[in-house]
Specification:
CATH class of the largest domain in chain B: Alpha Beta
Number of domains of chain B: 2
Number of domains of chain A: 2
Shape of chain A: elongated
Helix content of chain B: 40-55%
Largest sheet of chain B: 6 strands, parallel
Helix content of chain A: 40-55%
Order of helices and strands of chain B: HHEHEHHEEHEEHEHEHEHEHEHEHHHE
Strand order of the largest sheet of chain A: 1-2
Strand order of the largest sheet of chain B: 2-1-3-4-5-6
CATH architecture of the largest domain in chain B: 3-Layer(aba) Sandwich
Number of strands of chain B: 13
Number of strands of chain A: 2
CATH topology of the largest domain in chain B: Rossmann fold
Strand content of chain A: 15-25%
Radius of gyration of chain B: 21 Å
Radius of gyration of chain A: 19 Å
CATH superfamily of the largest domain in chain B: Glycogen Phosphorylase B
Order of helices and strands of chain A: EHHHHHEHHHHH
Oligomer: heterodimer
Number of helices of chain B: 15
Structural class of chain A: alpha+beta
Shape of chain B: globular
Distance between the termini of chain A: 21 Å
Distance between the termini of chain B: 30 Å
Strand content of chain B: 5-15%
Chain lengths: ~220, ~400
């Protein structure tokens, strides 16, 4: 018996760690020692804040390395991290550490950070709560994708996978497989949500679901 | 006064429904806000709008104002400026008097709410009466480089709080052992200061202040305060005036806790006497429509502050889709993405250069204004602020990183 898909939403309260970095070395030390919620904040909460910008900046680290320190090659190394292939934040942290260690050991760079523009490490506390929206079949699911807020969309696509480690894929695909929509689940799974704004992601999902509903 | 549902047309139904979901989780908790003035300045303005919204959402929120005389507010103004990094003396006698006034207020106030929410340094020492309830200190100013002895005086009080709230990432301090939270302040899009105005109202305000509607208007709206650098704004205007037949409007007021403001006003009035295109307008606290009209009528808006807590006048100007040039201080870089949603500047020369650029390129100025409005809509409206406060209150009862409500 299909239990329906219950939409949740999530919000974050941003916390200041009082720790900052002015050089790649200090950034490395910070990334090594901050709580994992800080890695999450600088790579994921960031997406929600800038979800309307096209092109969307990839994460806080890239912006700082490129725009403030003007370390283009290092910035691009961070840019090249394919976030969706990491199933845990600790793995993601390890990759950032590896990139910084390699870069610093090669030497030959000059980094000048103006006073007041240091990288400020932050973290966040996440609150998850149920919304009134429950979809009992694919048609209802499609209709509700129109209604839910972007915070809900974000929760089911990003949060459940990397932060909560509930599934190795997004919530929507997991539920769709459960109701026998294997092909649609696979199609959604193959999207890389890190490369689009949340509203674009919503439009794509709605298009996929509605095509499937109309094609049956 | 606006109702919660009125904001649905601006931010969407989901955002408002989610506020109710969060507020429901605070049932049974009382929240008492305390600051030092009921009118003037950004804090009073936010609380005036915020408290009714929280109440409408079912939150038991209240607001009290501490009492103080001119001597007390002169001391707190010095403390304020010293926390911003300016050299100000706060003598041993001042400190004793500051604590004495706080103690007197603590005797008069009922401080038994579940959450006592203290705004800014003036009432900070009330925390000496803290019992088992939760206390939060909301700091609206930039304390990243304070005068050490003044911060040292306040620090023992701050360490007694359960959490501190700051407006910008750089304000966080490693030497504070309590939780530190980042919450940007906000503007209310439905208030008289920010709502849409008919052109006739805008024209009437310009006529009343003898401002020429046909020529470019460069405006700075802020309290007459040294940290807002009104004399720097006049120097910027004079540079731009060499090549552009523009007018300057310097408009603002002074809060009841700011005795320095009137003295600054007198000084810049002298510049007005020498140039008829400089309009110095002292606005009483009930001038929201006038501020709104002046901002909407402006060709370019400046915020050339030397220090800022957050700089809410920037969000106000951006919301009206005006091109803004503002100093990269305090919370202003959070509100402006340089050359995308406004201009960040660092000097009189730079501000004057960008002012000329915007006065001569209206298309570019319009693009900046449009993007700036979108930035405010997403991140700096009161609905986001209410949500952050609800999360903050809830966080006091949860120690885990991931909270299931």
């Amino acid at each position: 018996m299909n239990q329906g898909f219950h939409f949740y939403t999530q919000y974050a309260l941003v916390e200041l760690l009082g720790r900052k970095a002015a050089t790649p070395g200090e950034l490395l030390e910070g990334i090594r020692s901050v709580p994992v919620t800080s890695i999450y904040y600088h790579t994921h909460e960031f997406l929600k804040k800038h979800h309307y910008l096209v092109p969307q900046p990839p994460n806080d680290f890239v912006l700082w390395l490129k725009d403030i320190l003007h370390l283009e090659r290092l910035g691009e190394a961070f840019l090249g991290v394919d976030t969706i292939t990491f199933h845990s934040l600790e793995d993601l942290r390890a990759e950032f550490i590896r990139i910084l260690e390699d870069y610093i050991s090669e030497g030959g760079f000059v980094a000048q950070c103006p006073s007041g523009y240091e990288f400020q490490f932050m973290a966040c506390r996440t609150f998850v709560l149920p919304t009134p929206y429950v979809a009992h079949d694919l048609a209802e699911f499609g209709q509700m994708l129109h209604k839910i807020g972007i915070h809900s969309l974000y929760f089911h696509v990003f949060e459940a996978r990397i932060r909560l480690g509930i599934t190795e894929e997004n919530d929507f695909s997991a539920w769709l497989r459960g109701i026998g929509e294997e092909a649609l689940a696979q199609e959604i799974s193959q999207l890389d949500p890190y490369y689009m704004t949340l509203e674009n992601l919503r439009s794509k999902l709605i298009g996929m679901v509605e095509n499937r509903v109309q094609g049956r | 006064m606006s109702r919660v549902d009125d904001y649905k047309a601006i931010v969407g139904e989901n955002e408002i429904n989610d506020l109710q979901l969060l507020a429901d989780r605070l049932a049974g908790k009382s929240i008492q806000n305390i600051n030092s003035t009921s009118v003037g300045g950004g804090v009073a303005e936010i609380l005036t709008r915020m408290i009714p919204l929280l109440k409408e959402l079912g939150v038991d929120a209240s607001w009290d104002v501490i009492k103080g005389n001119e001597q007390f507010f002169t001391i707190t103004k010095n403390i304020h400026n010293a926390l911003h990094g300016l050299k100000r003396k706060v003598t041993e006698k001042d400190r004793k008097y500051f604590i004495e006034v706080n103690s007197e207020n603590a005797e008069e106030l009922d401080l038994s709410a579940d959450i006592v929410f203290i705004h800014d340094p003036q009432p900070v020492a009330l925390v000496e009466k803290k019992k088992k309830n939760k206390w939060i200190w909301r700091c609206h100013i930039d304390i990243s480089n304070p005068q050490p002895e003044v911060f040292g005086f306040l620090e023992p009080f701050l360490q007694r709080y359960d959490a501190a709230v700051f407006s910008a990432p750089s304000f966080g301090r490693r030497d504070l052992k309590i939780r530190q939270v980042l919450i940007s302040p906000s503007i209310d899009p439905l208030s008289d200061k920010n709502r849409e105005l008919p052109q006739s109202t805008i024209d009437e305000v310009l006529d009343r202040f003898h401002i020429d509607r046909e020529r470019p208007i460069v405006t700075q709206i802020s309290r007459f305060d040294k940290l807002k650098d009104p004399s720097g704004v006049i120097r910027v205007y004079k540079r731009a005036k060499r090549h552009s037949n523009c007018q300057l409007v310097l408009a603002g007021g002074g809060a009841t806790d700011d005795p320095e403001g009137l003295r600054i006003l007198e000084n810049i009035k002298k510049a007005e006497e020498e140039d008829p295109d400089i309009h110095v307008i002292y606005l009483p606290p009930s001038s929201d429509i006038e501020i709104n009209a002046l901002q909407r009528a402006s060709t370019v808006i400046l915020q050339k502050s030397l220090r800022e807590g957050f700089g809410l006048t920037v969000s106000e100007a951006l919301w009206k889709a005006r091109p803004v040039i503002a100093s990269a201080v305090g919370g202003i870089p959070l509100q402006i993405s340089h050359k995308r949603s406004g201009i960040l500047s660092y000097s009189i020369e730079g501000t004057a250069y960008y002012l000329q650029e915007l006065l001569n390129n209206p298309g570019y100025a319009q693009t900046l204004g449009k993007n700036g409005r979108e930035e405010v809509k997403k991140n700096f409206l009161i609905t986001r602020h209410v949500r952050d406060y609800l999360l903050l209150f809830l966080s006091l009862y949860h120690s885990e990183d991931l909270v299931h409500l």
